[in-house]
Every structure is written in C-alpha cells, then in structure tokens.
C-alpha cells in the first residue's frame, strides 16, 4: 500500500487507484491536478480505523504547516512595524534639533528656527540652522591676524613676496576640508617702473631748456601708461570727468597739446580720467590727492604732502595684449592690443608737486565747485604759467614684462547640482603693504573657506558647489580674474550662479555699499536684516538704513569699472556683487600707497578690524547659503524691465523729434513688452510648479542663470568691445551711450547723428528681444507677431 501522506503531497494515487476527484466529469480520462488538494482522499482499503488515523495525521501536518506560515508572516510584519515606528520616532526627534558639533565634536541641540524654511535638497538641516552654524564658526580674531600677516610687506605680482604668499594660501586651502584645491596659471604682460630710468618732471623755459627737476618717488607709477616724453602747458581739469571737460570747452580754454592736472576721486577711475583727457586732445595727465578729498596729515589718518596714489590706466581688464583671449602660454596670438590702452602719458604726483605747479598758473578762474584745498593756490585753469613761456616736461619710462600669474582655487562640491558654482574671490597682490587693497579680502576669503569647510564636517549639505579663489595681478586691472573668465567664458554662463568680490571690503565702519548686479539685489535685504551693524550692536544693518531713508537708496549701488565684480557681469555675463564698509562722507586715504598698513586700518576702525571683517563675511556667507540651499535660484529676473521702461519713456518724450527724422521706437516698445511678459510668465510658472520637481527646477534655473548672459550684445566684437553688456558695459552699443546720444536731440541737435542712432537703437532692441526670447524658454513658447 502506498503511503497516504506521500500520495497526498504528490497528488498521485497509490496502487493505480483512481481518485474520484482526479477525473473531471464527462472528460474521459482524468486530467491530473498539479496543486495540493485540501480535501482528503479515501484509500482503497475499507478499514475504517486506518482511514481515520490517516486523516488525523494528514490534518495535523497540514495544520502545522499553516501555523508555521502564519508565525513567519506575523514575525515579519511585527519586525517591519517596529522598525518603521523606531525610524519615524528617530526622524521626528532628529528634525526637532539642529545637529551642531562644537570643537570637541559633541552634539548639542539648539532651538528649531522659526519660519517656513525648507531643508536643502537631500540634506538634513534647515536654512535657519545653517545660518546659526555660520555665525558660530566665523572667527574675527582669525581675520585680523590674517590681515596683519598678509600686509607685512609689499607683495606685487611676480615678486618673491608675492610668490611666497601664493604658496601660503594654497597650503591653507589644502589644510581645510575642501574637495579640490588647484592652481590656474597664465602668462600676462604687465608694466612696471623701469629699473634703469626714473619717471620725471621738469620745468622748462620757452626754448625747452630744463630749469628745475621736480623729484618723483620711483615706486609711484601708472601701469599701462604710454611711454616717452612730452612738453606742454598745464591745465587744471578738476576730476577729469566728462562734464569737467565740457565746462572747460565752454570757457574757451585751450586744451590741445597741454598736460592735465587732475584730482584723485570724483567717482571715476584713473583709466576713465586718462580716456577723457585723451579725447580732449591733451598729451599727458598728472594725478594728485587733493586735501579737500583726502586728509593730508598721516598722524590723523591722512596722507603726508609727499605721498602719491598709484593706479593702472588701462580702460578695461585683463591682459591688454591678449584682449578677449586667455593668456595661456601654449597659445600663439597675433600682434594686437586692447583698444583701452592709453595713447598719452600718465603719472601720479603728490599734493606738494601739484601745489608747486598749480600755484604758478594764470588764466580763467575755475568754475564753481572746483576749488580744492591745496595751500597757496588760487584756483585758475591755465594752461599758461605766470612766467611767460614756462612749461612742463613729462617723461615716463615704464617697462613691459611677461609674468607668470597663479590663481589659487579651492572648492566644496555640491551634493545635488555640483555643476553649478557660487564663487567667492579676492585680489591677493598689492603694490604696497595693501592691508585694505588685498589683505582684508584675502582674510575674509580664507575665513569663509575655513568656516564652510567646518560646516561641511558638521552636517552642511550644499546643493551647489562653492568656489574660493585668490586672484593674482589685481592691481593691474583684475588681470588674473579676467584671464580665468576668458579661458572659461564658453561654459561659465551655464555653471556660474553668482560671484562675490571681497576686494577692499573694509575701508571704514559707518556705512555699507553693495555694488551689484540687479539680479542679486533682493538677496541683500535678507542678509542685512539678520546681521548687526558693526558700529551699533543690537541694531541690524537694515533697521539703521531704513531709519536713514530706505535701504536700497543707501546700500545698493551700480557696478563700476574698477570693481572686482565688474568683469564678471559686464564681460562674462555672471551676476556679481562687491560689498564694502566705508566711512560716511570720507574716503580711506591710503589705498595704493605705501601707507596702507594693518596698523592704520586698525586706528581708523578704533580696533574693530576683526569685527567689521567678520560682518562682511557673515553677509556674504548668508547670501551664499541662500543660493546654495534653495531649489529655485532666488534671482530677480524682472529687474531689467525697469531700465527698458525708462528708455521707452525717454523715447516717448522725444517722439516728435524722432518722427521728423522718420524714426520709430515701436520695436523697442515691443521688445520691452516681450521681456517684461517673459520675466513675469517665468515667475508665475515657478510659483505654480511643484517645488520638489527636480527636472523642472533645473530647467528654470538654467534660464535664470543665463539672464545676464542674454544681455551681452552678440553684435559687437569681444576683442574690440570686451564689456558687451548693454546695461553695464562700455561702448556705443550700451543703453547709456544710446540715451546720451538721444538727449542731443534737444540740447545740441546739430550733433545728433541719425545713422549712428539707428545702429544703436537696432543693437539695443535686438539684444533686448533676444533676452526676451531666451527667457521665454522653448521656441514654441515664443510669441513675437512681427
């Protein structure tokens, strides 16, 4: 007899017996069942006791199997329930505290910050927690000590001191918790004072015979001045602004062939002063610090009478002998040079030298507001001397030299979007000790790198990458930064979210100025709301600015040519900002002099150098945190609608004059409307999109990041016109040039050039229209019914 249990489990009847349930009715031969039947099968034997035993055993075994399966299932479900409950309880408890590590490494809880801040993508910390961490780790003592260490002596590009400082900064980066550190090298042509011939001034008589040499300090010079010797009368030109030369022409002053004497300051750089003098027909220009602008007593934080201020005079940035191209040593360039190189001589002089020359001038009295405070000087403009026929001879003997530049980089790689960069940078070199010019920026840069590196070890989870850069050759016109921009221009508009310049960040402690791209302006409000004013503890920077009449008018300023941030926006199309604390109504007098030392900065700030430097670091750090935390970049894409609207209003006011010449502004109106609509549509789309949709967020961020790039005119040459931005750039294609030309329709209609105006209007219109099209997104979203 076959085993009934085995017969049950295998489903095959023993002894050839046929189970009644194994055959389907009406089916002929039965189809074998492949599943285990739960109904017991009667054996062939008719022994009732045997059949009963078999049934009992079978039932018992089946019941045991069912019980085992139930037990396994129950234990599994119980384990999952316990694990899930423990995980959720741990997660909720974890989210209720900020896991901050102190120096010894223990975990300490802090209060959960108020507000609707969301955690960083993939991270475990709220933005408020990251702000607290930033404030905790920033160290003002380290900033002060670094300024003192960096500004011990002159450290110009290419010098032994400059190379030693570069190595020191690289080693500092390598000691921090950085993902990458590296050096980016370029070869650039720089100009230095000649080692064999000193720049000089002479008073000469009518026949050109030298009567007296006026001594100059060999360290004082203007990089990229033209070289040679010129002779002429002296014309006092105030600050050498465009409006100053217009006043001189109105007075009938002879300018051609003369040498200009210009005050430092006035809101224009040395390079712009040279350009205006060159356009006016002068052959040379001398720069001096007037006591009305800069105090003269060094014991009271002023210059002494024999001090001069040096600055480069290239109307541009980067290596002027490779305009628009990166200065890599392996690249062979055609013989070319920047159109911004001056054609006239330029030299800085002291207030004493200026007083000696200006006191001898005769001629037309100065216009109102031109009177400085030079001793023994009656304000006249020249160009004649009181002694008939006397003139000035000026000689400049600077020399060109190729120099290896080293930009030092460190980076923290983003965890979600590592290919998007937020960049912080500072100039490293200085012609003097450079405490303000280079020391403060370098100190804040290193402290931010150290702070973010420490945060990374204690729970900071950056969505985007952070880059920290020490730039070389900043004294020569941001050469190191611009050469890097030129080398990577084709990719930066897709990768660089924003740039923060730390150059000259501390020149006082009264007022804050933010020289910025309008796209970043909204970030400032959030930062200054949370940071105390360094001079007024317990009061935020925002509250003080509001009390003085509104924070935007007090703090937000336009980018300017010599700013470390300017090239990033005007040349590279990257939103950029430079923060600066300064004295209200006063200038720091020692920049670009041999007196720019840490001791003088500390005396000016009454010992608060570290405090003010830390405030700058906190402001920049908070804005960087916001940019690296938010899923959608917090940049204001509507900011340029206002500038276009102002042009439309001006065109509308001059519509009659334009119609007489057959000119119509309708295409500008249409382009302005298209841009405004595209910007608003993008903002609305962002508001109505699932904030956690990573794909859509990346698409939106790509369009936001490229807004500045859209305003780089595609219709001018990057070699001839490097600052192609139509709103921040320089050249005939810009909005400022267009509006100045347009104003001539009423002030001086005879100077209005219709052909030039048509070209200007076309360049601006199509750049604005192109920005509107790009901001709209895909081509099927563009609706331009031309």
UniProtKB/TrEMBL annotation:
Transmembrane segments: 71-94
UniProt keyword Membrane present: yes
Single Gene Ontology MF annotation: transferrin receptor activity
Keyword Transmembrane helix in annotation: yes
Protein name: Transferrin receptor protein 2
GO biological processes: endocytic iron import into cell; transferrin transport
Lineage of producing organism: Eukaryota, Metazoa, Chordata, Craniata, Vertebrata
Family per similarity comment: Belongs to the peptidase M28 family. M28B subfamily.
GO cellular component: external side of plasma membrane
């Amino acid at each position: 007899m076959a085993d009934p249990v085995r017969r049950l489990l295998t489903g095959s009847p023993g002894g050839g017996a046929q189970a009644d349930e194994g055959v389907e009715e009406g089916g002929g031969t039965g189809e074998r069942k492949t599943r285990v039947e739960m109904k017991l099968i009667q054996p062939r034997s008719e022994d009732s006791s045997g059949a009963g035993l078999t049934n009992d055993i079978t039932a018992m075994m089946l019941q045991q199997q069912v019980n085992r399966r139930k037990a396994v299932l129950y234990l599994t479900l119980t384990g999952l329930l316990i694990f899930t409950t423990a995980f959720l309880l741990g997660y909720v408890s974890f989210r209720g505290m900020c896991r901050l590590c102190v120096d010894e490494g223990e975990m300490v809880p802090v209060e959960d910050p108020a507000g609707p801040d969301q955690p960083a993508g993939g991270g475990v910390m709220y933005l408020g927690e990251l702000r607290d961490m930033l404030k905790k780790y920033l160290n003002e003592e380290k900033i002060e000590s670094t300024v003192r260490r960096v500004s011990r002596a002159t450290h110009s590009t290419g010098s032994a001191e400059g190379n030693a400082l570069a190595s020191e900064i690289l080693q500092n980066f390598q000691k921090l918790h950085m993902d990458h550190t590296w050096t980016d090298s370029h070869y650039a042509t720089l100009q230095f004072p000649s080692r064999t011939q000193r720049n000089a001034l002479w008073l000469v008589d009518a026949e050109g015979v030298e009567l007296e040499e006026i001594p100059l300090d060999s360290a004082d010079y203007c990089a990229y001045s033209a070289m040679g010797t010129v002779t002429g009368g002296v014309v006092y030109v105030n600050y050498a602004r465009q409006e100053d030369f217009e006043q001189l022409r109105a007075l009938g002053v002879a300018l051609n062939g003369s040498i200009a004497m210009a005050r430092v300051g006035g809101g224009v750089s040395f390079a712009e002063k040279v350009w205006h003098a060159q356009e006016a027909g002068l052959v040379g220009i001398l720069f001096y610090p007037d006591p009305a602008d800069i105090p003269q007593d060094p014991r009271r934080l002023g210059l002494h009478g024999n001090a001069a201020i040096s600055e480069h005079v290239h109307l541009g940035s980067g290596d002027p002998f490779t305009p628009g191209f990166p200065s890599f040593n392996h690249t062979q360039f055609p013989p070319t040079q920047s159109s911004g190189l001056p054609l006239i001589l330029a030299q800085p002089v002291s207030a004493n030298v200026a007083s000696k020359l200006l006191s001898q001038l005769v001629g037309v009295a100065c216009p109102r507001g031109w009177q400085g405070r030079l001793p023994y000087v009656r304000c006249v403009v020249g160009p004649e001397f009181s002694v008939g026929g006397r003139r000035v001879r000026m000689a400049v003997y600077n020399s060109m030299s190729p120099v290896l530049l080293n930009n030092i980089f460190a980076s923290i790689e983003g965890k979600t979007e590592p290919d998007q960069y937020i960049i912080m940078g500072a100039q490293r070199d200085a012609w003097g000790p450079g405490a303000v010019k280079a020391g403060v920026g370098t100190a804040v840069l290193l402290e931010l790198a150290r702070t973010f590196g420490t945060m990374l070890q204690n729970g900071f989870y950056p969505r985007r990458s952070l880059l920290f850069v020490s730039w070389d050759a900043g004294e020569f016109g941001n050469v190191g930064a611009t050469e890097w921009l030129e080398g990577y221009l084709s990719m930066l508009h897709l990768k660089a979210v924003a740039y923060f310049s730390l150059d000259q960040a501390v020149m006082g402690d009264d007022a804050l100025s933010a020289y910025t791209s309008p796209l970043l302006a909204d970030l400032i409000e959030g930062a200054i709301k949370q940071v105390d004013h360094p001079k007024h503890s317990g009061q935020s920077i925002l509250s003080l600015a509001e009390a003085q009449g509104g924070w935007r008018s007090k703090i937000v300023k336009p980018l300017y040519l010599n700013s470390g941030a300017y090239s990033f926006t005007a040349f590279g199309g990257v939103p950029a900002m430079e923060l600066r604390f300064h004295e209200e109504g006063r200038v720091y007098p020692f920049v670009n002099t041999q007196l720019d030392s840490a001791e003088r900065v500390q005396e000016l700030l009454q010992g608060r150098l570290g405090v003010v430097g830390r405030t700058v670091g906190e402001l920049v750090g908070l804005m960087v945190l916001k940019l690296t935390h938010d899923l959608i970049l917090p940049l204001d894409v509507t900011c340029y609608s206002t500038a276009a609207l102002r042009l439309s209003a001006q065109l509308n006011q001059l519509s009659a004059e334009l119609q007489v010449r057959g000119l119509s502004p309708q295409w500008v109106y249409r382009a302005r409307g298209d841009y405004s609509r595209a910007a608003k549509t993008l903002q609305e789309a962002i508001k109505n999109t699932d904030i956690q949709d990573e794909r859509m967020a990346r698409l939106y961020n790509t369009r936001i990041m490229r807004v500045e790039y859209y305003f780089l005119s595609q219709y001018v040459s990057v070699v001839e016109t490097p600052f192609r931005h139509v709103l921040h750039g320089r050249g005939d294609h810009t909005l400022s040039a267009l509006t100045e030309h347009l104003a001539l329709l009423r002030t001086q209609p005879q100077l209005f050039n219709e052909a030039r105006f048509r070209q200007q209007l076309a360049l601006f219109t199509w750049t604005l229209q192109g920005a509107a099209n790009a901001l709209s997104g895909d081509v099927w979203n563009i609706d331009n019914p031309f």
